[in-house]
Write a structure and sequence with these properties.
heterodimer, A: 12 helices, B: mainly alpha, ABC transporter involved in vitamin B12 uptake, BtuC, 14 helices, 3 strands
Chain lengths: 304, 358
């Protein structure tokens, strides 16, 4: 396999946690809630997934527990930003700190433990034979799941009634409310969903991409996913491109190391790219006169 | 009887302060649950934290030592948050300040008499410069400053890693990721018997006062508050939002940079990989806890630093991971912002024709 094909195949794995988290955040923001705590949610999911796999011996249990814990944990942000109506940026930040802190506090006893069970690799017949992109089709099920749900979530968001409701709640909550939509409920659902997918993305890191739990394992992936949410223009299909692109950047680091570039400087590559991507997408947004969901970050208060 | 919530007509200073104190008090039992989950008796843990931070002259002086970087970052952030510019990049700005000071101390070849002054200036300038890009991106392109400043933090950590393991790695350090020690003329003196480097302490107190006066008494402070309170109104009043965003970011970045200078020149005497155990992130807490008022923030910084010193104590004695401090930070921050909302409402109890407010 030549280098391009191997980078592509690895990029898909590296991009999967980013994609899952981005997809969740897209729904969250589409409903009007900005969850800057994503990095904390992913970290909590990463630990929950690893710990559950260690305790039960089943990586599937790990994934399920990670999703559940991720969803529940992000409901803290749901409560403060939806019910209390506090500043969402600060609340998200607090959630990020809390998630990182709790995970390393409770995770100390899992550091250095081996992964007891691992995800199977499913080779999809015929497709793996295609040159160059064949490498995309010999991965574990979570990678495929990411691909499938990004398409499914695009369909739901743009082609179903539920999708219309989510977007309406994020654009004009008063109008949605007047039409009989329970704005609070929809926002809570989307925040929960965001946490479920964030938790899953986090768990994919500790259960497959770099197996094992250690402090700082997320390496800012949650923050990168927040930038990818903007880059994708709040479109689930966009997250597919953005996440794989960033997966590519991550993999590229290791290949460039072979040419003598210091690893510490290469390690900055994803973060520099994030800023570049943010600049590029906001220039694009300005030109196309597109923007974030109109009610993003604004708490909804029913008058009266 | 009916119980409901209603908006307070005015929110007094006293209510705001009591709400904050209540928030901190409420967050402690919740963190106690985590202690318990860890197999540590929460009451024992809190007693140890308190005596560790305030119970001895040594603990007290160490609390002040930690208050220097935390306070400098927090006071700077106060100005930024007042303008509603959420600079989360104090950590990176602090690191860049420490790197600038290190270069001046070890490689600039400047005369000994000016070295310390130039170190402080260089620290301020590089700290401010590190805040410039997020400021420009926010003011010109409306890019979320939280994400950009965080990315700048990660980048500065990688740069720090690069210099202490590469070009600046000390020749006398047996391969440890740190630079050679600074010459004595590039070190800050300390109050005898403590590690309190009083140059930095003086700078902290001075900048707190200056910012207090600036915000209360000057046109600049007024403009910053208008930009933070109502950017639309600011535009109509002819106040430049861009100019104010740049101003508050450069000042807060610069002060964080000075905090970094204090750490290398006052505490470690060299640049090390772990130059900041998250001071820049921790500083966010006293900024909110102090109600975005420089004097309140200074007091809150002292309290939070005590919590950190006490946290260090129980990390050693109860073998808890160092990340404990982030749990405190996150929990307290969540409770503070929630309490701000609750402070704006009061509980009304209606019985018969009477209304009782709490």
């Amino acid at each position: 396999m030549d280098i391009a094909a191997s980078i592509l195949a690895e990029a898909v794995r590296a991009g999967t946690p980013l994609m899952l988290a981005t997809l969740g955040e897209i729904y969250c923001e589409r409903s009007g809630v900005l969850n800057l705590g994503l990095d904390g949610v992913m970290t909590v999911g990463a630990l929950a997934g690893f710990a559950a796999t260690w305790l039960t011996g089943s990586v599937w249990m790990g994934l399920i527990v990670a999703m559940l814990i991720g969803g529940l944990f992000s409901l803290i942000h749901g409560f403060t930003s939806i019910s209390l109506g506090v500043n969402q940026t600060v609340s998200g930040l607090a959630l990020a700190m809390l998630g990182t802190g709790i995970s390393s506090l409770l995770g100390a006893k899992y550091v250095g433990l081996p992964l007891r069970d691992s995800l199977p690799v499913l080779r999809i017949p015929v497709l793996t034979e295609i040159p160059l992109v064949g490498g995309l089709f010999c991965h574990d099920p979570v990678v495929y799941l990411g691909m499938v749900i990004s398409i499914a979530m695009w369909l739901i968001l743009f082609k179903t009634r539920f999708g219309i409701i989510v977007r309406a709640v994020g654009e004009k909550p008063e109008a949605a409310d007047a039409a009989g939509v329970n704005v609070y409920l929809v926002r809570y659902l989307c925040v929960f969903l965001g946490g479920v997918l964030g938790g899953l993305g986090g768990a994919y890191v500790t259960l497959s991409y770099t197996p094992g739990w250690r402090e700082g394992v997320m390496m800012g992936r949650g923050w990168i996913a927040l930038a990818l949410t903007i880059f994708s223009l709040w479109n689930p299909l966009g997250s597919l491109i953005g996440a794989y692109l960033f997966g590519g950047v991550e993999v590229l680091q290791f290949h460039l190391q072979e040419y003598g570039v210091p690893a510490s400087l290469l390690g900055a590559l994803p973060y520099v790219s994030t800023i570049v991507v943010l600049v590029a997408s906001s220039l694009g947004l300005l030109r196309k006169r597109l923007g974030a969901p109109a009610a993003l970050g604004t708490p909804y208060r029913r008058e009266g | 009887m009916e119980i409901g919530l209603e908006r307070r007509p005015t929110v007094s200073r006293r209510i705001n302060i009591s709400a904050r104190i209540l928030a901190v008090l409420l967050s402690l039992p919740l963190i106690g649950l985590l202690f318990a989950a860890y197999g540590v008796n929460p009451i024992d843990a809190y007693l140890r934290i308190f005596t560790g931070a305030f119970g001895s002259p040594y603990g007290f002086s160490e609390t002040i030592v930690k208050m220097l970087p935390i306070g400098l970052c927090a006071v700077g952030l106060t100005l930024a948050y007042r303008a509603r510019v959420l600079n989360i990049g104090a950590e990176g700005q602090l690191i860049m300040g420490s790197m600038a000071a290190t270069w001046v101390a070890l490689y600039s070849g400047l005369p000994q008499s000016v070295t310390i002054v130039v170190m402080l200036l260089a620290g301020f300038i590089l700290g401010a410069a590190w805040a410039l890009l997020p400021a420009l991106l926010k003011s010109r392109l409306n890019i979320n400053e939280v994400i950009v400043t965080l990315m700048m933090n990660y980048i500065s950590l990688k740069l720090l890693d690069y210099v202490v393991t590469g070009p600046w790695r000390g020749l006398t350090q047996w391969g440890f990721p740190q630079t050679d020690p600074f010459p004595s003329y590039a070190r800050f003196p300390m109050i005898v018997g403590t590690r309190i480097h009083y140059y930095t302490l003086t700078l902290l107190l001075a900048s707190t006062l200056v910012l207090y006066v600036l915000m209360k008494r000057t046109k600049i402070g007024y403009e910053v508050k208008v930009v933070g309170g109502n950017p639309e109104a600011a535009k109509y009043a002819g106040i430049s939002v861009t100019k104010n965003i740049l101003l508050v970011m450069l000042v807060s970045g610069g002060l964080a940079g000075v905090a970094g200078v204090g750490e290398v020149a006052g505490i470690h005497g060299r640049l090390i990989r772990g130059i900041s155990p998250g001071y820049g992130y921790t500083a966010i807490i006293p900024t909110w806890l102090g109600g975005l008022d420089p004097l309140g923030v200074l007091v809150a910084s002292f309290f939070i630093s005590g919590l950190m010193v006490g946290g260090d104590t129980i990390q050693v004695s109860l073998r808890l991971p160092s990340s404990l401090v982030y749990v405190f930070n996150g929990m307290i921050l969540l409770f503070i912002i929630s309490s701000e909302v609750l402070a704006r409402y009061r509980i009304v109890i209606k019985t018969g024709g009477r209304r009782i407010w709490i």
